[in-house]
Design a protein that fits this description.
single chain, 512 residues, alpha+beta, Beta-Lactamase, Helix Hairpins, five-stranded antiparallel beta sheet, 14 strands
Length: 512
């Protein structure tokens, strides 16, 4: 009897399979906390504190700038009135300068102090120079302007120093008939200007000392009010019962955190699905294990009562067979659990030769095929047939497909495992000459613990469920067909086909 139709080379001659990286290596970077640089890396961040810092810090930085700007503006506001008065005073003195008998005179008719109007905060001085630069009237300590008499015209103003103090000086040149210009200057100290500027600053800054604390208080209250929905959402989540995994109403949350609520709802949905799968798995496992364990107990009790050695051996054989069935059931349950709950513990996918895996799976089941008198063969393509997957899971898939075909094929039948290339896809087929699966049953045979009635074949109904779960983990598609060369209507056989799209030969979109 032939157990295979394709040569099987020694495993020691196999070439190592290259690993296809599923993702670029992760680069670990030191993450520095955003926000307060003085915060320790392990310290929990406060959203309220972060917003408050970013709102008050600019305010506290801008406040000194506002004081400085206010001082500059106050100076600009205080100077023009005093400058106009100073220019009017020097113009008045210039209008009363004349020349008589070659001498320059200042003829006011009143005391000059009446014109200057000094007070206790301002010291005002004037100067009139003659044709040859001699002092005609006033104070000789007033410094001379940088321009000469050629710059005669409207009064000019400048800052200067007089007796070590800063003064504001208004000056002009008076043109006399057929004579050089005569210089007239009026200087006053800056105390009054500074006093006015200080009054303006006080009028602007003092209210800010009241407004700034109020602004901080209002910002605090606004943040407390703005973050109130977060507090309410936190309270609603804390009040939930542990078993309540219903989605949170995103409409009751602020628009800015609605994506966070939706992500949390998605996590709840995935968690609920995972818990339901676990519950179903535990319930199914408990239900399925109840029968073989009860049978083992009954058979062991019968064996204890036997006195005939032949009957005792028969009972022990039945116990061994029941133990084998229970072991197979447990292994299949564990395989199904691994397929359904891969997650972070799932094996790393690598580039694997599906033809080699199929050859190994067929070789491992040759004794089973010989025992059942079934012709088990393998038909492999000459083209490369590499897929991206986990070797342990793919061996489980192949084992369940071949074992399922061997169980449902009568003695004298044929089971063929086939690997071929279809464009960029790699296709695995397991074909048998069994009784077949009716069209109405094909959608249900992938359900766990479902078995087609009338087959009289022992099994747990988990084989094809495991195949489907593993295929989904590998983005593969499983389908059931009638073999194209089926000749016996009583035994049309079954063709189970698995299409792998994650191959190095091109990326194809998933099809329904």
């Amino acid at each position: 009897m032939r157990a295979g139709r394709h040569p099987m080379p020694d495993q020691t001659s196999q070439q190592p399979r290259p690993v296809l990286p599923s993702a670029p290596p992760t680069v670990q970077r030191a993450v520095r906390p955003v926000g307060n640089p003085l915060r320790r890396p392990d310290e929990q961040r406060s959203l309220f504190g972060e917003i408050l810092d970013w709102m008050l810090a600019p305010l506290l930085v801008l406040w000194p700038m506002s004081v400085t700007l206010t001082f500059v503006v106050a100076q600009e506001i205080a100077n023009p009135p005093f400058d106009r008065k100073l220019a009017e005073t020097v113009s008045l003195l210039a209008d009363h300068v004349d020349i008589k008998q070659g001498k320059v005179r200042l003829q006011l008719g009143i005391d000059v102090s009446e014109v200057l109007r000094p007070d206790e905060t301002v010291t005002t001085s004037f100067m009139v120079l003659g044709l040859r630069g001699e002092l005609v009237a006033g104070d000789a300590e007033i410094p001379l302007p940088p321009e000469d008499g050629a710059m005669a015209g409207p009064p000019r103003l400048r800052f200067d120093k007089m007796s070590g103090s800063e003064v504001r000086v208004a000056y002009t040149w008076v043109r006399l008939p057929d004579q050089p210009p005569v210089l007239v200057q009026v200087a006053e100290t800056l105390e009054a200007r500074t006093q006015l500027a200080n009054e303006i600053i006080k009028g602007v800054i003092v209210p800010q000392f009241i407004v700034l604390p109020l602004a901080v208080l209002l910002v605090w209250l606004a943040l407390t009010r703005g973050l109130a929905p977060l507090t309410a959402l936190q309270a609603r989540i804390r009040r939930r019962r542990p078993e309540d995994r219903s989605p949170i109403d995103a409409r009751a949350a602020p628009e800015e955190i609605a994506p966070l609520v939706e992500s949390f709802n998605d996590l709840l949905a995935r968690l609920s699905a995972s818990i339901e799968v676990q519950k179903r798995f535990i319930a199914d496992a408990a239900h399925q294990m109840k029968t073989p364990l009860a049978g083992l107990r009954t058979q062991s009790e019968l064996a204890l009562r036997q006195t005939d050695p032949a009957e005792l051996r028969r009972s022990l054989r039945q116990i061994a067979a029941a133990t084998e069935r229970a072991t197979r059931l447990i292994n299949q349950l564990l395989a199904l659990a691994r397929a359904e709950h891969g997650g972070a513990e799932a094996p790393v996918h690598e580039l694997l030769d599906l033809a080699q895996l199929t050859r190994e799976a067929v070789r491992d089941r040759v004794p089973q095929a010989i025992e059942r008198q079934i012709d088990l063969g393998v038909d492999l393509t000459d083209q490369p047939a590499e897929v991206l997957g986990a070797a342990l899971m793919l061996r489980e898939l192949l084992g369940n497909l071949i074992d399922n075909a061997l169980r449902y094929t009568p003695p004298g039948g044929t089971v063929t495992a086939r690997v071929l290339r279809d464009g960029a896809e790699v296709v695995l087929e397991v074909e048998d000459t069994g009784h077949g699966i009716a069209e109405a049953e094909r959608a249900r045979v992938f359900d766990r613990f479902y078995r087609v009635l009338g087959t009289r074949v022992e099994g747990s109904g988990l084989g094809l469920a495991i195949v489907r779960e593993i295929a989904e983990q590998h983005d593969a598609r499983v389908s059931i067909h009638t073999p194209p060369k089926a000749q016996n209507p009583a035994s049309p056989g079954v063709l189970l086909r698995v299409r792998f799209t994650r191959t190095p030969y091109g990326k194809l979109p998933m099809q329904p």
